[in-house]
Amino acid sequence: MVNFWQGKRVLVTGASGFVGTHLCNRLQELGCDLFIATSNDFDLRRSISASIMLDANDNLDFIFNLAANVGGIGYNQLHPYNLFYDNIQIGVNLIHAAIQHKVKKFIQVGTVCAYPKFTPVPFDEKCLWDGYPEETNAPYGIAKRVTLTQLQAARQEYGFNGIYVLPTNLYGVGDTFNPEQSHVIPALIKKFVDNPDEVEIWGSGDASRDFLYVTDAVEGLLLLAEKYDRPEPVNLGSGEEIRIGVLVNLISDLIGFCGKIKWDRTKPDGQPRRVLRIWKAKELGWSPKVKLKDGLTRTIEWYKNSL
Questions:
Q1: Strands 208-209, 242-243: pairing kind
Q2: Residues 6+ apart with CB under 8 A from 36
Q3: What is the pLDDT of residues 217-243, one digit of tens each?
Q4: Where residue 7 falls among pLDDT bands split at 50, 70, 90?
Q5: What is the rounded average pLDDT for all residues in the chain?
Q6: Does a cis peptide bond (omega within 30 degrees of 0) precede residue 122?
Q7: Residue 225: its pLDDT value, please?
């Protein structure tokens, strides 16, 4: 991998975000010629911004598109239209500009939220279009599905080499702990650390999730960028399912929480079950390395040290 990336011209959008930061650090270690783009630099919801960005960074070997408007269940309920509009515009504008600028390969990071609400577990990539996403995040999930269709159409008409990656729920050091936008693991860690007496948690605890540590996700993205060139999407996950109730107890134990846990069953659980089948990525030589307990421990310590 080191030899492969040496000297490659790579652009990462969403470079200041959670996954983008880790990806950029790894690409720098591998010796590529790295270009970064953040929302402060370019508003990719505007097509002219996408074109200007690629005018300034020409002859690119790779684009990793991590730019997105994203958040947890509460954020999705408050901003369904903005999540739909922003993510469609970002994807459509950037992919179109990449085709026009003859970028050699495009890696679109999708979302597990694009899967149908009642997908059989483990989720297989071929099931992506078999139903409507879970209602609380459907606008976001549908917007991300659109970019897969766009990439497949561009491959068919122009021979454009774009691949689509479906990561599961990601977590780790540097995650977003802002309560308005955080996902389940950082939200739980923050609640247990900040509120030692009582914590209120949304839902019943019966829903399940598949969690992947961020550095494992980065290694998967890099391997797929190097070795995968097909139109079908590829899952990246741990391949392990855990109920939210079990996760809550695990995090509270790791933190040493001794207070009261209160479940608010009037709030949504989100998708009932979620775990990905990861055979495609494994066939290419990737597999997750960081076990959930170890990843949670690292993340908890990082958050405590950041206070």
A1: antiparallel
A2: 11, 12, 15, 16, 20, 24
A3: 999 999 999 999 999 999 999 999 999
A4: very high
A5: 96
A6: yes
A7: 98
Report the chain's C-alpha Rg in angstroms. Answer: 19
Helix (H, G, I), strand (E, B) or coil at 270: coil
Given a cut of 80, whether residue 1 has pLDDT beyond it is: no
Domains and CATH numbers, the chain: 2-175+211-240+275-290 (3.40.50.720)
pLDDT at 126 over 80: yes
Task: Retrieve residue 84's tokens.
Answer: 């739909």
The CA–CA distances, whole Å, from 89 to 43, 84, 96, 277 equal: 10, 9, 11, 29
Q: Which residues are CB-neighbours of 146 under 8 A, at least 6 positions away?
A: 88, 91, 92
Which residues make Cβ contacts (< 8 Å) with residue 289, sequence separation at least 6?
213, 215, 216, 219
Structure tokens at 122: 């483990």
Local confidence band at 105 (pLDDT 50, 70, 90 cut-offs): very high
Report the DSSP beta bridge partners of residue 162. 106
Mean pLDDT for 260-287 is 96
Nearest to 31 by CA among 5, 67, 11: 5
Are 233 and 110 within 8 A, CB to CB?
A: yes
State the pLDDT at residue 178. Answer: 87
Q: Would you please indicate which residues are annotated as catalytic (active-site) residues?
A: 140
Q: What is the pLDDT of residue 279?
A: 97
Compute the distance between CA of residue 223 and CA of residue 34 in angstroms, rounded to an integer.
Answer: 17
Sequence-distant (≥ 6) Cβ neighbours of residue 5 within 8 angstroms: 27, 30, 31, 32, 222, 226
Residue identified by tokens 């996403």 is: 133
Tokens of 288: 């997750």
Whether the predicted model's global pTM rises above the 0.85 cut: yes
CA distance from start to end of the chain? 36
Residue 244, H or E segment: helix 244-255
